[in-house]
Every structure is written in C-alpha cells, then in structure tokens.
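testing teh design pipeline on a random one, pls ignore if ur not involved
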C-alpha cells in the first residue's frame, strides 16, 4: 500500500552503502517514475545527470577543490567527506531544473515539480531496497563549472543512491492535527 511505502521512506547516507552496483535498467526505472511527477502547464522542468564510475570520483574532487577555494577556514574532515562520499554511492543523480524560458509559471512551481519528481524517485528506491538521500550543499551553485548546462538550467542537489544492509531507523512525526486548521 502506498501509505506504508511513504511511511517507510528514509534518508540512507553513503556511509551506510555497501559495495554493490546499481544497474542502468534500475536507474532508468527510477528516472521513469520521476518523469511522471505533476507539473503546471506541462513544463516538465526536471533534468538529471547520472554519475557512475569515474564521474563520481571526478565529482568528489571537483566539490572538494571548490570547497577549498571558497572556504576561508576549511575543515579537513569536510574535504575528506566531499571526496569520499561520491565514491561510496552506487550512483549519484544530479537533480537539475530547467527553467521554462517563457516563464509561463513561477519558478517556485518548477522547483516544486522537480522536488515531486525526486519524491517519486525516493519512493521507488524505497520499494526496491535502495537507500538514498537528496543532498543540496552550498557548492551546487558552482555546478555550472562541472556540467554543461543549458540556458536557464541549474542544479538543485545530488540524489545519492546505494544498496545497504542495515535497516534504517524508525522515524516519528508530530501529529498532523498540530499542523492543520479546519475551517467551516
């Protein structure tokens, strides 16, 4: 049931991933689910770049160098994490958004549509036993130096994915009643 799947969805981080590749066919299935996200005026703003193998190492190196270049007091553990995390993933999907150049809808709607595409991906990963999380570090503003973006396109973060052994921790939410106002 979809409700159970939604409640089971968790962030699973690269440190938890095991060394097991994710096939192209599985990634294509996950991306196909993303493609069915709702979006206003059918702008379909989501764009993805799949990184596997050597491109993951290149991403880690790029991020660590950008961090060192732009951080006045860099922390060694952060440099190490930026280099290593991409290589621990079975795949990384750069989550990008292509702004409708005609600006037929507000930008926030295209960001929201892209986020819904990511939620579809996340739910598919949960169903398939693939751990994942969406990282949106401040360094994404430099991704135009790494990727060849189209006009109006930008990176919103990285969707790390990997198989894992340990069950993610249970989670709780505050009651929905605390977040709803019923109006008659």
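output:
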């Amino acid at each position: 049931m979809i409700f159970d799947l939604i409640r089971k969805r968790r962030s699973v981080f690269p440190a938890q991933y095991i060394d097991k590749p994710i096939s192209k066919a599985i990634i294509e299935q996950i991306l196909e689910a993303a493609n069915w996200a709702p979006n206003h005026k059918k702008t379909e703003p989501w764009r993805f770049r799949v990184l596997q193998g050597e491109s993951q190492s290149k991403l880690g190196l790029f991020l660590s160098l950008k961090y060192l270049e732009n951080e006045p007091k860099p922390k060694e553990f952060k440099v190490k994490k930026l280099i290593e995390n991409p290589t621990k993933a079975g795949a990384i999907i750069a989550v990008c958004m292509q702004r409708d150049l005609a600006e037929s809808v507000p930008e926030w709607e295209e960001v929201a549509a892209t986020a819904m595409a990511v939620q579809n991906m996340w739910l598919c990963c949960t169903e398939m036993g693939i751990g994942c999380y969406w990282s949106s570090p401040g360094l994404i503003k430099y991704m135009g130096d790494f990727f060849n973006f189209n006009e109006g396109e930008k990176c919103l973060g990285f969707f790390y994915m990997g198989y894992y052994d340990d069950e993610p921790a249970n989670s709780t939410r505050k009651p929905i009643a605390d977040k709803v106002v019923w109006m008659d």
